[in-house]
Design a protein that fits this description.
Strand order of the largest sheet: 3-2-1-4-5-6-11
Structural class: alpha/beta
Distance between the termini: 43 Å
Radius of gyration: 19 Å
CATH superfamily of the domain at 8-163 and 193-221 and 263-278: NAD(P)-binding Rossmann-like Domain
CATH class of the domain at 8-163 and 193-221 and 263-278: Alpha Beta
Order of helices and strands: EHEEHEHHEHEEHEEEHEEHEHH
Oligomer: single chain
Bound molecules: NADP nicotinamide-adenine-dinucleotide phosphate
Number of strands: 13
Strand content: 15-25%
Number of helices: 10
Largest sheet: 7 strands, parallel
CATH architecture of the domain at 8-163 and 193-221 and 263-278: 3-Layer(aba) Sandwich
Helix content: 25-40%
Length: 293
């Protein structure tokens, strides 16, 4: 597909955070977008369950590009059932990607900074991988198969993807602080955030340019969870004194889910696509400013 020309896209995992944003982003650019779902009630969705896949509905379509977002994304779920999660996240994902590639579809696979062990600051795309948990190992297995099988795919490794509304830990803090309740935020864990809109834009540009290889996207630095909670309180005029710091123990968050260095080296994507690589504090500042009043 030529740069600037719209085409036909398939979003695999249309109900996911990234997949939902990709649909909006690509439709705004004039693309025809179809999305897979496990929800039979979703109008227009192409049914696909990677746990027990029937690829017939997907193979009825012709797509210029496909964004592979569907996965078991809970690291704990992958760890506790490696066989089932590997079947979905690796074997059946690769089977789908091969079928799409055979029909001329260019692929963008959503991978993760969990392919690293987090012991090296700012790893670039060529840095040695060493996943510490099953989720990261599964992402790496797909990446390696893409390379081995020469699939027409870009691998987009992202850090912590944030929605533009309060979800997860941010929702918990926001609601508690608004009710005047204290919150505990980790003093010994950090995040490298990236907004979902930036992930969608990067994935689309990789697809449009028919790029291959590995690409990193995150923020240019990290921010501790305690500092993030304090920033939220300040930004929303919520009581700062209710934000309490807590050193997380291994019992709360096992070592295999923690990275000393969470930020990826993102020069390649910044230079080539180009994509903005924003400061962690600026990302959170803009995010918190947009939270509901
Ligand atoms: N979010 C992050 O911070 C982050 C960071 C690094 C990498 N990534 C990667 O980026 C991609 C998108 O992440 P996300 O956070 O947007 O995902 P998400 O919101 O957690 O959604 C995951 C999607 O996968 C689908 N799925 C799970 N099992 C499936 C199965 N057996 N068959 C078909 N679909 C299945 C889910 O379908 P249901 O809705 O039906 O359950 C859901 O739509 C994932 O590959 C993820 O690993 C995300």
């Amino acid at each position: 597909m030529e740069q600037g020309k719209s085409g036909r896209a398939l979003v695999v995992g249309g109900d996911s955070l990234v997949g939902s944003e990709l649909q909006v982003h690509c439709r705004k650019l004039g693309w025809t977008v179809e999305a897979t779902s496990r929800r039979t009630e979703m109008p227009g969705a192409v049914f696909l369950d990677l746990g027990d896949p029937d690829f017939t509905p997907v193979q009825r379509g012709t797509y210029d590009v496909a964004f592979v977002c569907a996965a078991i994304t809970s690291m704990q779920a992958c760890q506790s059932d490696p066989a089932r999660s590997r079947r979905i996240n690796v074997d059946n994902t690769l089977d789908l990607m091969r079928r799409l590639a055979d029909r001329g579809t260019h692929l963008v696979f959503l991978s993760s900074s969990q392919v690293f062990d987090g012991e090296t600051p700012l790893p670039d795309e060529a840095a040695p991988t060493a996943p510490k948990n099953e989720y990261g190992a599964q992402k790496l297995a797909v990446e390696q198969a893409i390379e081995r099988q020469k699939l027409p795919a870009a691998v987009l490794r992202v850090t912590k993807v944030l929605a533009d509304r309060p979800v997860g830990v941010f929702k918990g803090w926001f609601e508690a602080l608004a009710k005047g309740q204290p919150v505990q935020a980790a003093t010994n864990m950090a995040l490298s955030p990236v907004m979902v809109a930036d992930v969608a834009a990067a994935a689309e540009r990789l697809a449009t340019g028919r790029h291959r290889g590995v690409w990193h996207l995150g923020s240019s630095d990290d921010i501790g969870y305690f500092d993030a909670a304090r920033l939220m309180a300040e930004r929303r005029h919520l009581p700062l004194s209710l934000v309490q710091g807590e050193e997380l123990t291994d019992a709360q968050v096992p070592e295999i889910y923690r990275h000393r260095y969470v930020t990826l080296g993102c020069e390649k994507i910044a230079r080539t696509l180009p994509m903005p690589v924003r400061r962690a504090r600026d990302i959170l500042d803009a995010l918190f400013a947009g939270f509901p009043r």
